[in-house]
Amino acid sequence: MTRIRTSAVLAAGAMALAGCSTVTNPSPADPIEGFNRSMYTFNDTLDKTVMTPVAKGYRFAVPQPARDMVTNFFSNVGDVYNFANNLLQLEVTAAVQDLMRLTINTFLGVGGLVDFATPAGLPKHSQDFGVTLGKWGVPDGPYLVLPVLGPSTVRDSVGLAGNMFIDPTSYINPNWVSYSIYGVRIVNTRANLLDASNLLEAAALDPYSFTRDAYLARRKYLINGGAAGNAALPNYEEDDGSANGANGANVQPKPAAPASGVQAEPDAPQGSPVPGKIVPGGLPFRR
């Protein structure tokens, strides 16, 4: 099943490249901007016509406490990623914290439905195999928007295979159960990010450039600092709560100071997973 998902993503990307358009003066970090903008438009259309209505229906039909438990469950699964990748990065302290979170939330939190680790002071990290490759010196390569999956880079795209291998839900049988769990994860995470869509539309005249710059800044923050990949998201708002760039100014994402295990995600409970592959214009992948 893991091989099927990887092959499908790569095949879709290869077919889409055939229709790639060009940009006269692309950014050095985005040499295939024409293709990426085409993919962004495709993903954004899919998100607005399919994912957003489904996510709104899910948020309307499922009570907030139940959504919190679903988010906590997938956050607990995400700690498997964090533990494995912190070990690969030789971040022993962070790996021990991840293991403690897993143990506490799995056994005391009924499989992770309740997050006891965050109130206990154990920080929530945000790691994946792409970050691990980056910390070991693998260059990120050009920015790349994947069909359905959204923003990435060449290095992070290779890291998707490692993410699938680490993900424990990939090994659940029968396959329809695993795919159903993945579908719930997509819808639940998109529901948590509905307000982020409004922020993106208000913050930038060019949502594509804003998304690209925010993604690359976030990845750089995780690789070069961020207290072993702490889960705080970039801060795109001024102190008065207004979005930077709402007046058309050039927007540069500002990584927030590491939070002590508190997840800064719109409409999500504490300890919820960081959607490393989730932005309007791209669907979530395993985070």
TrEMBL record:
It holds the Pfam family MlaA. The keyword Transferase does not apply. It comes from the Bacteria. GO terms for biological process: intermembrane phospholipid transfer. Residues 236-287 are annotated as: Disordered. GO terms for cellular component: membrane. Keywords: Lipoprotein, Signal. Residues 1-29 form the signal peptide. InterPro entries: MlaA (IPR007428). Belongs to the MlaA family. This is Putative phospholipid-binding lipoprotein MlaA. The gene is mlaA.
